[in-house]
Amino acid sequence: MTMELFSLLRSFDKPLNIGNKSFNSRLMLGTGKFKDLQQTQASINMSSADIVTVAVRRAKYAKYIGKSNLIDGLNWKKLWLLPNTAGCTTAEEAIKIAYLGREMAKRIGQLDNNFVKLEVISDPKYLLPDPLGTLKAAEYLVNNGFTVLPYINSDPILAKHLEDIGCSAIMPLGSPIGSGQGLQNIQNLQIIIENTKVPVIIDAGIGTASEASRAMEIGASAVLLNTAVAKASFPYLMAKAMNLGVLSGRIAYLAGRMSLQDKALPSSPLQDMIYS
After folding, report:
1. Rounded mean pLDDT, 12-31
2. What domains, with CATH codes, occur in the chain?
């Protein structure tokens, strides 16, 4: 982003606030499915993401918990770690992994990092989040000092319950994880955005930059994605495209879309026209 564009955007916008932290980028990037660490690093750099998420259960630990090739290979002075509980099928599992994630954050020097992306997925076929398990785990973790970002289906009622118990953001899916189907339930997503006072982060299903832009145009606070970048032919190029798509969508949202009209309207006024 050029300094001129950055200054212009800042005059209309404000940073993304989650819990007690502020972030400039509204694109968050997952770290799974990349070919190697170098590809991961290049994609994160091109995305300009401030927040990256790491699956705690799937991290390859080195000498002690909280250290892995991925963890060691990223610059945590510039990036904020969002540990996630991917692979957990029950609330109890997710709670245990959340504590490991918090320990991981402490070991990389982020002593005030209590963030957790809460995933409870008991369905092995469609990988849809378990609403009851998510609500149960979220309430426990909020009460124990975590900044909880729950991953849910596009369910406005569940989103409101999670906000009411103290979650710091809501992360509804656009479509199933890794599907690349884009935003399949825009009406429900819009209801969640309209009714929720905490940030709404569209997570899962986005396949290309236009879909990320669309998520931001309808008023989402941010977008989190992984597969769309990691499985692109050139991941670092797609990471840049996603960065620009999120930025474009946010600017369009702030600018305010024109209202829809039933009939065509001329671009030029009819008054004072010259007739031959």
Report:
1. 93
2. 25-255 (3.20.20.70)
- Which two structure tokens, joined as six digits, stand for 44? 């994160």
Residue 134 among known ligand-binding residues:
no
Q: What Cα–Cα distance (Å) separates residue 123 from each residue in 57, 95, 132, 211?
A: 17, 18, 13, 26
Q: How far apart are CA 136 and CA 129, in angstroms?
A: 13
Which among 162, 152, 148 has a CA at the least distance from the CA of 99?
148
Rounded Cα–Cα distance for residues 64 and 68 (Å)? 9
Q: Give the CA dihedral 221, 25, 66, 101, nearest 10 degrees.
A: -10
Q: Which residues are catalytic?
A: 117
pTM: 0.89
256-276 pLDDT, tens digit each? 988 888 888 777 666 666 665
Is 205 annotated for ligand binding? Answer: yes
